[in-house]
Design goal:
Rossmann fold, 8 strands
């Protein structure tokens, strides 16, 4: 599994702080690819695909997990669709504050929002699966800069469609998701090796 980070339009130091916060929570991303938004538009799916083709040329594993923020969510969802159509596997797309971005696909999608209004209004354009919103609300950039400090509600959907809410931080919710997909990837590879 390759983790692709698709930042928004902000200083690269915020992404560095985001990754540092995840490491402090013992979240292992391996060696993630970080789409260079200082060089290319954050919202450009075409540029993300070109970046992926260049970076993954020598790798046999083309399964991706996207973690995207703000304008990067626009590019990430388009790139995920295109990557899947070209034969690649999308394990999941995690969108932090992708307000106003329609999020639909035949792969798992998760939303994290900086406040309840953003969570509620974004769900009108595709709620995805398990999600999180900050409560009390925080500034937009704080969700990316300091997910370890953002407290709120993790919402898990049961098989019967009922939502279960529990208090969490954004970083702990991300850890839950990443562990889920890491285990899925590991068990799938194990099953292939046994066949």
């Amino acid at each position: 599994m390759v983790v692709l980070i698709c930042p928004g339009m902000h200083e690269p130091q915020l992404t560095d702080r985001f990754l540092q916060a995840l490491r402090q929570e013992s979240i292992d991303l391996g060696t993630p690819l970080i789409f260079p938004t200082q060089t290319y538009p954050a919202f450009s799916a075409w540029h993300i695909i070109q970046f992926l083709r260049q970076e993954l040329m020598q790798r046999s594993d083309n399964s991706l997990l996207f973690i995207s923020f703000s304008a990067g969510v626009v590019g990430a969802i388009g790139a995920a669709w295109a990557w899947q159509q070209s034969g690649g596997k999308i394990l999941a797309l995690i969108a932090l504050d992708g307000w106003g971005v329609p999020l639909f696909g035949n792969f798992p999608i998760h939303r994290l929002s900086h406040d309840e209004f953003t969570h509620w209004s974004s769900a009108l354009l595709g709620s995805g699966e398990d999600s999180f919103y900050a409560d009390p609300g925080v500034e937009h950039l704080d969700l990316w800069r300091s997910p370890d400090l953002v407290r709120g509600w993790a919402i898990q959907k049961t098989v019967s469609g009922i939502e279960r809410r529990s208090r969490s931080t954004a970083a702990a919710f991300l850890a839950l998701l990443l562990n889920r997909y890491w285990e899925y990837r590991t068990s799938s590879r194990h099953q292939l090796n046994k066949a």
